[in-house]
Amino acid sequence: DDDKRIAYITGTSLYNRMGLTTQVPKNIRVASRGKRIVTKVGSIQVKPVKSYLDVTNENYYLMELLDVLKDFKTIPDTEKNQVIKFMLQKIKDLTNKEKKELVDIALKYPPRVRAFAGAILNEINPAKPVEDLKKSINPLTIYEFGINKKQLSNIEYWNIR
Predict the structure, then answer these.
(1) Are 140 and 109 in contact (CB under 8 A)?
(2) Which tens digits make up the pLDDT trace of 54-63?
(3) Nearest Cα to 7, choosing from 29, 39, 22, 40?
């Protein structure tokens, strides 16, 4: 929109591009805050998804990472260990400023995503707990991801199973 990014591709298309799945979807999901992007390119349909905040060139790749955590249990044809290793590496490669922005953006996502992001950030740097994310989740809620302590050592702190 006027040479400004207002949307990004998410869903199975994103996970395929990241190498997390070999599945090629027949529908492409496009996340945007303000516009519903619906179109058809040949036999491929583009369907809208609501993003959790305004999309910019500076933040869309962080929202892509958070979408991986959000859809962790539903990414087709993938191994949970593979996704966790991928996310640990991707987030580890972010600058400190990008990690802080990731936390700020994660605060707009559902609690299960905040807990998962906190667990990954804590795994990368155990000495630096992510208190903003920890305070934002209900201490009585258990987040079921089907992972264990071998995959992420701090899952109990984040109420993850």
Answers:
(1) no
(2) 999 999 999 9
(3) 29
Three-state DSSP class for residue 161: coil
Geometric angle at alpha carbon 80, from 152 and 66, rounded to 5°: 75
Torsion sign across C-alpha atoms 57, 47, 105, 22: negative
pLDDT beneath 70, residues of the chain: 129
| Dist. CA 152–CA 160, nearest whole Å | 9
Q: Determine the pLDDT at residue 41.
A: 83
160: tokens are 């993850």
Residue 34's pLDDT is what? 81
Which own/partner pairs from 56-60 qualify as long-range (CB within 8 Å, at least 24 positions apart)? 56/4, 56/5, 57/4, 57/5, 58/101, 59/101, 59/105, 60/5, 60/8
